[in-house]
Amino acid sequence: MASEACSLPTHTAPSPDAKPLHDVDDDLRRRRRRRRRRCCICALVTLGVLLLLGVTLLALFLTVLRVRDPSTRLLSARVVGPAPSLAQPNFTVLLAAAMHNPNYVSFSYASGTAGLWYRGIHVGDAQVGPSRIPGRGDETVQLELTVLTADFTKDMAQLIKDIEAGALPLDASARIPGKVAVFGVFKLNVVAYSDCHVVVGFPDMDIRGQECHDHAKLIL
């Protein structure tokens, strides 16, 4: 009993491989710093990739995707015969127009509409048939225009003056909705507009002069 009462508590000796507490804390801080450094590097790389992607898309938009205005030039006009009508004796004029597509992508359209005005009076309509204009290419478009005789002769006195002068001033307007295919995958809706003032010779129907204003609009 005396030996048990006089016994002293024993202490476990530390392992020679055990690290001091301050060394453990230093290791934890170093690991945290490495993780933060890796996270910063990943964030910087991601930001750089996003910036590069943004610059690439901007350059792509300014070159390939930016819609440039087409150009239209009327080549010829000729009367091909009377148009079938029960109400009034109309006649048909065949128009040939050259269209230039300055864009890098092709322009495809199913149909379009065109109108004709003589000194501010609506005198005719036409349907533009389906076609495809290649990128940075040209296409000749044929339009069968139905001229409304009753409307064309409303101002008979002025019409006689223009016929005697051998020149008919006309205004033509066309609206052609279609699609452009970017890389053959992305299809965007585009509407091409053309407004032309044309002077047609009479009776030879030659194009004496013309001034056209064309523009295209991207529909998002």
Helix/strand class: alpha+beta
**Rg from alpha-carbon coordinates:** 39 Å
Large-scale geometry: rod-shaped
Discrete helix count: 4
Domain count: the total is 2
Which CATH class of the largest domain is shown?
Mainly Beta
Number of strands: 10
Mean pLDDT: 80
Low-confidence stretches: 1-6
Do you know the CATH architecture of the largest domain? Sandwich
The main pleated sheet reads as: 10 strands, antiparallel
Question: How much helix, percentage-wise, in residues?
Answer: 25-40%
CATH topology of the largest domain: Immunoglobulin-like
Q: Kindly, what is the distance between the CA atoms of the first and last residues, rounded to a whole number of angstroms?
A: 98 Å
- Work out the strand percent: over 45%
* Topology as a string of helices (H) and strands (E): HHEEEEEEEHHEEE
What does this structure look like?
With 220 residues, the chain is an alpha+beta fold. It folds into 2 domains: 20-66; 71-219, Immunoglobulin-like, CATH 2.60.40. The chain has helices at 2-5, 21-65, 149-152, 156-165, and strands at residues 71-82, 91-101, 107-109, 112-118, 121-128, 131-133, 137-147, 167-182, 186-201, 207-219. It is rod-shaped and about 105 Å long. The N and C termini lie far apart (98 Å). The model is unreliable at 1-6 (pLDDT under 50).
